[in-house]
Structures are given as structure tokens and as C-alpha cells.
Amino acid sequence: MNINGYTSLYGIVANPIRHSLSPFMHNYAFNRLGINSVYLAFEISPAELKPFIQSAKTLPIKGFNVSMPFKHDIIQYLDEISEEVKLTGACNTVKIENEKLIGISTDGEGFIQSLKSHNYTIKDQKFVVLGSGGAAKSIILSLARYGAKEICIYNRTYKDDFNQYSDLYHTDIQFNLLDNKEKLHTDLKDAYMLIQTTSVGMNKDECLIDESYLYDGLKVVDIIYKNEETLLLKMAKAKGLECHNGIGMLVYQGALSFKFWTDLDMPVNEIIEKIKEN
Ligand code: ATR
């Protein structure tokens, strides 16, 4: 694709962000589909968020992704936000249309689509979620929206009881402290899937749960994608359990942002293969 006077600009605003796979993913899709656009990483400081927004409105920027630590702070600058952004307090995708900024979140739906790509079901199932940060909130909201029967959240510290989500979608959502190992053990015995959303395991071979908690038939997803296999996934694999890292969620959330901006389908499977090759 030749860059010329008609090229549109997209990007991701975060800090740090140089390591991100998003520029690869979106530029691959633009090239593959013949769209005259480029996608860059915008690494800014918190003080630069407001000036960035002002620039975005004047430059040929049609949309951008938002990652840590700006997913919440960006909301004050948006003209319209989706219901999911309202409920989770986090936005990861912004479209600029006629100088208006419209914010959505594709994290939760991206997670659901990655589960569906493996033919997993959500309705009437029981899930155990480790962590209750930004990513977990989007996942929990989407699991509830898709009819999960029960969601047992385990976090290091008390955050939120998630009552608002239980009331909205009639899902039994329980918040627990990670210290409550006995209940965690019991919950995992009849859970359909364990979802690991914390940063534990990202940089070191660490894991929040004991190997003996991984029962036959439990499906395990660790949303970390930086290293292909966290200790949790290594343990699950050694026990013969079905397990997946976060590449699927990453690419599907990106594909939903891409669709929101261009109305076109990202070649998801091709991109997942390319990421795995590298
Ligand atoms: P993200 O958007 O990636 O979810 P986040 O909102 O900062 O990031 O959330 C990080 C999650 O990882 C939180 O659930 C955090 O637990 P706390 O709420 O108690 O901080 C969890 N986390 C990070 N480091 C952890 C550790 N060493 N042990 C247990 N949980 C940890």
C-alpha cells in the first residue's frame, strides 16, 4: 500500500505500547484488504492525553485504540459512549466522525468470540475468574450477558461486588478474596472454565493456583499473550486439559475495532497464524 495524500491514520494510545501487536495486526489487515490507511503506536504521558485528543480531531485520524493506563481517563473526552463503556468504566476503541468521538469497548465481546471460535458455550455454564481489573470486568460483563449461570471471581484485594451486573443479567456473580483457597478449590471442582486475567505469569513462571486444583475436564484460558505459555497453561497442558492463551482475545477484540472503523472483516485466522509463526 502506497502512502499518499489520501491516507488515513489509526493508532493505539497507551504507555508503554512499543511492544504491542496491534500495529502489526491492523496494518496487515489494511494491506490485505487494500485500504489506504496506516496504524501507529502513540506512546504518550498522562499529561499528553488532552493535547492528543485535540490533535486527533485536526489530523486525519479516523480512530484509535486505547490501552493502559488510559482506558478510563479517555472517557471524559468522548462525545458518545456505548452501554458497555458505561458499565465497565473502560473504553478501548474510539471512532472519530465529524469531529465527534465515539467510544466502545471490544474486549469482552472479543473474548466471547475467541471462545466461540473454539466452539465453547457460555450459556448456563459456571466460570471461575482470577482477577477483577479492567480486562476482567469486560469479560465478566460479557459472560453474564451471554447467559453464564455462575461467575466466581477471585481477586487479591476487594474491588467491587459486581451486583450491578448480576441484577442486569440475572447471573449468580460472587466476589471472593484469593485467600479463600478452600472455596476456590470447591468452585473449580464443578466449573466449566477457569479464566486467568491477572498479570501474574506474564514476566515470571508464577501461578495463582495449585496444580491439584486443575480437575479433569476443566477448560483453562489465560488472557496473557506476551508469552505463549504461562505456568498455568503449562500445568494445564501437562494434565491434558484444553487450554488457550490470550492471542485469540487480542485478535478478536482488534477485529471488532477494525469492523467499527471500516465496516470490514479483519482476516482473523490469517493474523492468528502469522502471530504464532513469529
Ligand atoms: P487489566 O486491565 O490488565 O485487567 P488492571 O486493571 O491493572 O489490569 O488489573 C490487574 C489485575 O491483576 C487485578 O485484578 C490485580 O489485583 P488487585 O486488584 O488486587 O490489584 C491483579 N494482580 C496484579 N498483580 C497481582 C499479584 N501479584 N497477585 C494477585 N493478583 C494480582
Q: What is the CA–CA distance across the termini?
A: 22 Å
How would a crystallographer describe the biggest sheet?
6 strands, mixed
Rounded to the nearest angstrom, the radius of gyration is 19 Å
Q: Major sheet: order of its strands? A: 2-1-3-5-6-4
Mean pLDDT: 96
SS-based structural class? alpha/beta
> Based on the structure, what is the oligomeric state of the protein chains?
single chain
The stretches of 5 or more residues where confidence is low (pLDDT under 50) are none
| Unique ligands | 2'-monophosphoadenosine-5'-diphosphate
Helix content percent band = 25-40%
What is the overall number of helices? 10
Taken in chain order, the helices and strands follow as EHEHEEHEEHEHEHEHEEHEHH
Q: Report the principal-axis shape.
A: globular
- How many strands appear in the DSSP assignment? 12
Beta-strand residue fraction? 15-25%
